[in-house]
Amino acid sequence: MHTDAQITEVDAAPTEAGATATQAGATRLARPDTPTDPGTTVSYVYALSRAGTALDTRAPQLTGLDNGPLRTVTCGELSALVSSVPADAYSEEGMRARLEDLSELAAVARTHHAVIEAAYATTTVLPMRLATVYLDDARVRSMLHERRADFGELLTWLQGHVELGVKVYADPREAAATPPAAAPPAPTPAPAPGSASAPVRSGRAYLQQRRAQRRRHRDAYRAAGAVAGAVPDRVSALARARAAHRPQQGDLASGPGENISNEAYLVPAERTGQFHQALTGLADDVPGVHVEITGPWAPYSFATPPTAGAGT
């Protein structure tokens, strides 16, 4: 059973939002369990929802991977949003090759995300992890039947909620460029002409300046850690659950400086404004520290059923 204010340790998304779809908040990767012939297709699952909802009407209006049409596969009270994809391209070997091509992987993630967000605009869905693939629709129905209790409970739990992301960044350069809030030191008398103390004092001042810069560099990370630690307390009354992701690096980190904290919160849709307000000004007086709020998204980080695993 799910409880409020739970903390889940999961992998970070490989890209922001467009690849939020790949966060490990979805069902474990499923793979075809027998060799497939070239030219055959497999069933790619984007999301799950209640049967008989707006998803059945919305599906034919959407386009999935490889420009394939979408459909719903239904079993009992559950439906899966599915499209057919080439078996060779989405096999283990095929996906391994795609992982080596970041531009292609990002394109797959964006399409996966776009389908989920379009579906989520009409009804509550459980996002599936990137490349959740089954041999055929019959295997998808079997999965829905086997996991019907877990999925049903989770859909009920997520109803009316959205995911909001909170990232904290440390920017040591900005912190180092910000003068400390202290009185300026008294001016040093100029050395007498010809005195050897001039270069000594100049070198000493340089070393002092460097030490001060390093100190502010360390202080920026400490301050960012303190700000990140304050976030959960500020939003605890507004969030139903919290998920801690791995900090993003390189091009994936959209904010200034280094991403030191990357968390997701499950928030009632009507309380997103209060959530933003609760974090307003949190780092305004902290040089070199920035807070970024993203979303609302479909609940990627909270779509893991109580018992993990998917059929093949």
Chart the SSEs and their pairings.
Blueprint: E1 6-10, E2 41-50, H1 54-58, E3 71-75, E4 78-86, H2 92-99, H3 102-120, E5 126-127, E6 133-134, H4 137-146, H5 148-158, E7 161-170, H6 172-177, H7 197-235, E8 241-245, E9 258-268, H8 272-279, E10 289-297
Parallel strand pairs: 1-8
Antiparallel strand pairs: 2-4, 2-5, 2-6, 3-4, 7-9, 7-10, 8-9
Give the key terms:
312 residues, alpha+beta, Alpha-Beta Plaits, 2 domains, five-stranded mixed beta sheet, 8 helices, 22% strand, elongated, disordered N terminus
Q: TL;DR?
A:
The chain has 2 domains: 41-159; 162-178 and 206-302, ACT domain (Alpha-Beta Plaits, 2-Layer Sandwich).
Question: How would you characterize the overall build of this protein?
Answer:
This protein has eight helices and ten strands. The strands form two sheets. It has a five-stranded mixed β-sheet, covered by helices on one side. Strands 2, 3, 4, 5 and 6 form a five-stranded antiparallel β-sheet that branches. It has two domains: 41-159; 162-178 and 206-302, ACT domain (Alpha-Beta Plaits, 2-Layer Sandwich), CATH 3.30.70. The chain is an alpha+beta fold and 312 residues long. Strand 3 and strand 4 form a beta hairpin. The chain is elongated and about 80 Å long. Residues 1-35, 182-188 and 306-312 have low confidence and may be disordered. It is found in: Gas vesicle.
